[in-house]
Amino acid sequence: MSRRLSGCRPHPLGAWRPRTPMILALILAFATIPARAQWAVFDAANFSQNVMTAARELEQINNEIQSLTNEAQMLVNQARNLESLPLSTLSQLQSSTQQTQALLAQAQNIAFDVQQIETAYSSTYGAASTTASDATLVANAQTRWQTSVGSFEDSLKTQAGVVGNIPANSSAMSSLVSASQSSSGALQAAQAGNQLLALQSQQLSDLTALVAAKSRADALEQARNAAAESQGLEQYRRFSTRSGYVPHDVSMFGE
Fold first, then answer.
1. Whole-angstrom Cα distance, residue 224 to residue 216?
2. What does the pLDDT look like over 132-164, one tens digit per residue?
C-alpha cells in the first residue's frame, strides 16, 4: 500500500537534482571574497633582455671611466712637459766666457783693434824710413821686439785660461747630460739640450780665442822679421854710402 504525500513528488532511486538557488548563493559568496594570493609568472625572455641591457650599460660606464682616466693621464703628462729644468749652467758659462774675453782684452801693445793695428803697421812695422835717424830705427826695432814678446805672453795666458775652463765645462756637461736623461717632460729635455748647445758655444768661443791669440803672436813675429829685414837693408845702405869710406882689398894672414 502506497502513500502519497501532498506537494511532494517521488524521485527515482539514484537520481540527484542540485538545489539551484543554494548553488548560486554559494558562487556569489565566493566571488565577493578578495583574492589573497596569486601565482607569480616568470618571463625568461624579458629577464634575459634586461640582463643584456644592464651589461651594455655597465660596459658603457666602464668605457667612460677609462676615457676619463686617459684624459687625466694626458693632463698629468702635459703638466710634466711644462715643468722647467731645475738645473742652470748659464751663469757658469757666462763667467768662463767673460774670463776669456778679459784675457784677450789684456793684449799688450797692439790689441785686437783694426785701427790700432793699421797705426802700428804704418809707423813701426812699415818699410824703414830713409830719413829717420839711427836712434829712431833702433827704437822701432826695440818696440817691435817687445810687442812680439808680449804677444807670445798673451797667447800663453789665453791658453792657460782655456785649459782652466776645462774642469768646469766637464762638470757642467756631466750635470746637463744627467739632467737630460732623467728629465720628466719635453720642456726639461729641451732646456737641457739648449744648455748643452750653450756649453758647446762656450767651448767654441774658447777655441776661437786660443786660435786668435796664437795667430796674433805668429803674425806679429812675422811682421817683426819683415821689418827687421827692411831696417837691415836701410842701415846697410847708409853704411855703404857713408862719406870717407872707400872699399879696398885687404890682405890677411900675411898674404
1. 12
2. 888 888 898 999 999 999 999 999 999 898 888
